[in-house]
Amino acid sequence: MTTVDLGMPLAPAASPTASEQRPKMNLKVWLCDLTYTQQAVSAETMPQAVAGLATHAATVMDFQRVPQIFKFPDDLAAALETHGAPDVIGFSHYIWNAHLSIGFARVIQEKFPKTVVVMGGPHYPLLRADQVQFWHQRLAGAVDFYVDGEGEIAFADLLLHLNSKPAGKVLDTIPGVHSLSPDRREVFTPRPRNRIRDLADVPSPYTAGLLDQFFERGGVPTITTTRGCPFGCNFCTEGQDYFSKVAKRPRAEVEAELHYIGRRMAPLVQAGTARNELLITDSNFGMFPEDKHTCQVLAECQKLYGWPRVVNVTTGKNQRERVLDAVAQVPGTISLSGSVQSLDTDVLAAVQRKNISAAKMMEIALQSAQAGAQSYSEVILALPDDSKKKHFDTLRGLMDARFDRLNMFQLTLLPSSEMYAPAYRKRWGLGTKWRVIPRCFGRYTVLGEEVRAAELDEVCVELPTLSYEDYRECRVMDLLLASLYNGGVFGTILAVLRAHKVSPMTWLEECRGQQHGKDLNRVLSEFLAETDEQLWDGRQDLMRFATANVDRYISGELGNNLLYTYRMRMISEALEDLTDVAVRAALTVLRRIGAATGGPSLVARMVREGAAYHRLKLSQVFTAEPPAILEQVADFDIDRLLQDAREGQESPDARRYRLPEPMTRSFVLTDRQRATLRTYVGEMGSTAAGFGWLLTKVRLPDIVREVRMTAAGSGSSDAEPSRSDAVTP
């Protein structure tokens, strides 16, 4: 393991000779990865990346004072009041904290002009012309240096220069460190540093003790085992050639880091004060031989510490056998991704992306089920050359491939992506609007000054091939898919449809076309209205409005993630209507292909019973103390049908699933599920926005009622009949 000496007990200790050869760092250094906190903690992950700047720097210099790490704005404000400013302060600069970081940096520059402010991160333009504009419009007066590209080596080099000379003597001298001349006329943009080839050069900030304070504060542990991506998608920050080579961390360091984290998470998870999660930031986890070893270590941690229950990571789309072998070490812990963004060949050509075949995608989903893992894919709406038909066809293809969940995103133009360039926008006719990023807004008092900030992103809402009205219709379909399909919300209906060779997309389109109940119609209408209200033509106009009305955003009146929030509202406010339209649409499309769906039809009865089954599982899922037990008369073995569906073996013969005798089905929320809900609600809040966010972090089986079967007559006399009165024929 690489030796790091940050003034804390480490093993093994640095040798005296090595320590004597390293320069002594006399500067007081603070590193900040700020997040908004007033609606909820926006970026709940631990500040591993900025702490890694310190651990790398400690391999080439001896800090006389341990660098301090800050995550929460109020902590930084209090430290500035109590201790004054450091000699050097660094800020991360991501799409979710860019203006917050700049707001704090500007106050620090005004109050402490001798403090050197450094910024770095991916929210920085790719082209020099855009970088110059970025400095003049956003960074001037707030930032002395911006680190372009990977930060560790360039930042350490900058510290060594600042240790012996004033900041004005460092301008335009360090590769990868950009700056502005004192008269603000010249922007210096030297080329980026070469990438780090061996991530052993960035020792773990966890085992160095730099992140200990964040465990007790509910942070989600975050690690990196590889860095870089071999794919060249031009909507992505890592799509540029600079990131095409993949660097790896040593196995021993990853193992030590995971056990260190596990030992600290164990009592917190047991007490219900921390989320039982791990985030791995790799772009293509599982593609490399080392990833299987990482999963084996994760399995050890689960046995020893009861952590992590869930690992959030993007798995690789190539080397599928290797990926499956890796995640099989921790069954049910990692969801396999088959992200495509689009299935249309023209759209993929426009964004320089290649996808695997439809047959391979279906293989991913089926093998995921066999490996005890869930599967998901990602779709981006309004990529160049996209259309309503192409978007719907992509959704159809992915559901037919049996992915458990589809994550639908809007195209965001990132400054560090090729797509951001004016020439690219013009070529493809990208029509964009601005919106406030959910949970990324707040106001803080810093050294007597109020900092009001909000983060904005620029999203594509119109193309020559996609009108704004079509864009709105695509968003409605995305919401219906999230509410009716994702996570097997109505898995019984999906199984029956697939058994009869009917695509789930055909069913969803029928759900959209059917008459809706009052509650469902209201929720959909409000979703469309809020979609329009959130989008602004001008960035500056929206920024002025958002900062002036920041309290309305914090309260949840404005700025929610619409898909997340309205999915929650569909389930909580319109569940009866949702169930009703799901059944009517299913029977309609089945009838079209000649299936018997009349009153005595076993298929129709199974559809109705299955819909009621799912409705009861979801009933009052967001209520703090829901009724302990709900019951239903069972005529069909729904669990067997769902198991057959997971294996792709569902049968169109409903007699296969009919029970010999009616039974009683009980729906129970367990103590473990209640504890999971309390933990997440405590962190995310009990607002519509908080519950919507919760649905993106928690797997439905972890919070919806468990089902238990008993002989008929052994339960309550209030058991609901299998033909739910809430479901019309």
Compose a concise summary of this entry.
With 729 residues, this protein is α/β, with parallel strands linked by helices.
Describe this structure in words.
By secondary structure, the protein is an alpha/beta fold.
Sequence-ordered SSE layout with sheet pairings:
Blueprint lengths: L15 H6 L2 E2 L3 E4 L15 H10 L4 E2 L4 E3 L2 H11 L4 E5 L5 H14 L4 E5 L7 H12 L5 E3 L4 H11 L14 E4 L6 E2 L33 E2 L2 E2 L19 E2 L2 H21 L5 E4 L8 H17 L4 E3 L7 H8 L8 E2 L7 H6 L7 H13 L4 E7 L6 H13 L4 E6 L11 H7 L2 E16 L2 E14 L5 H17 L6 H9 L4 H10 L4 H17 L4 H10 L1 H5 L7 H12 L1 H18 L9 H17 L10 E8 L1 H9 L11 E11 L2 H14 L3 H10 L8 E6 L18
Parallel strand pairs: 1-3, 2-4, 2-5, 5-6, 6-7, 10-13, 13-14, 15-16, 16-17
Antiparallel strand pairs: 7-8, 8-9, 11-12, 18-19, 20-21, 21-22
Helix pairs in contact: 2-6, 7-8, 8-9, 14-16, 14-20, 15-22, 15-23, 16-21, 17-20, 20-25, 21-22
